[in-house]
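Structure tokens please, single chain.
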Amino acid sequence: MFLLSDLLVPLRPVCAGVPDRIVSLAPSITEILFAAGLGDRVVGVTTFCDHPEEARRRPKIGGMANPSLEAVVRLRPDIVVMTTDGNPREFKDRLQKLGIETYVFRERRLGELPEGIRKMGIALNAEKDFNALATRIEKALLRFEKEKVLHGEKVVFIIWPDPLIVAGAGTAISDAIGLLGGINIADTSGVRYPKYSIEELIRQSPDVIFIGKGHKDMKVLSERLLRRLRSVRAVKEERVFYVGDGLYRLGPRVIEGIEEMIRLLRQSK
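Here you go.
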């Protein structure tokens, strides 16, 4: 885990120039680096870094929670970029003891993403491209906020149907629901991805249900759940939508994720 003291760092370049060899320890970081134009400098990624397609062909250094120190060192990185949302704090300490530069992305909320990208750009001496990416995301978020395709409607975003896991407070998904004018019924759980009871979902009777992309066919996996939820307003009114994974990672594709939600909501009216 990362400490509060880690947040108190000056905004200054970590490297003397734009680093030639970057290792990314999170899928969201990898997507930001590629979107900002530094993809050709990324020499190592995690086993979960599957977007863009080019990232799949980069050498793997292990998972987010258990990256291999030996694999990272072999890649001779100028800098390792990591996140507080999934990477172990002690890995940063081990890298620094070996004299390997690190940068930690600390933002976790949708509204924090543009500024987080700008800070990364400063650290990597690539401010122009990162600022341009941050501005595009910022403008899109402002546009979405004005559209308000949800009008106080109750929403639930299902991550997995059995056991039932939903997106709770503190996630980019919940932030997106609020941005569009909806109410995430799982916000009160106090957990980012809580297990939810079917009985509570029936009691809350959301107006809209989103079901996110999984590693299996979510339409097939959700059939039994939706039969049990047939009395819920969203099911009765056919406002159950299957969406991609754009909002699962705090990176550039959150814009695609929100645009998909807006398109589906408009088509249902």
